[in-house]
Prior knowledge:
mainly alpha; 0% strand
Amino acid sequence: MDEEDFFxxxxxxxxxxxxxxxxxxxxxxxxxxxxxxxxxxxxxxxNIHRRVLHINDxxxxxxxxxxxxxxxxxAVGERSGILSFIPAFMVTSMP
Length: 95
C-alpha cells in the first residue's frame, strides 16, 4: 500500500500502531529541522552553550542584586539554560 498515491483511496487500517498516523508527513517541519541542525552546527554547540550560560549568569546577578531567591542549582555540572526563581510579589507575601 502506497500512502502517497493520492489517486487511489484505501480505507483499510494498518495492523499495527501506524494506523494512528494521520495525513502526510510534516515536510515543512522536517525541512525546518534540517535547517536548524545546520545552523546549530555552523554556530557550534559549545559556542551556544557558553552564550546561554553567560546570559544565565547575567540573569542570576540581576536576581541576586534584587535579593530574589534562585531555585536552580548554579554549580558547574548542574546548570542549564533554565533558571527558576521566586518572583518579588511572592517573596513579599511569604511568611
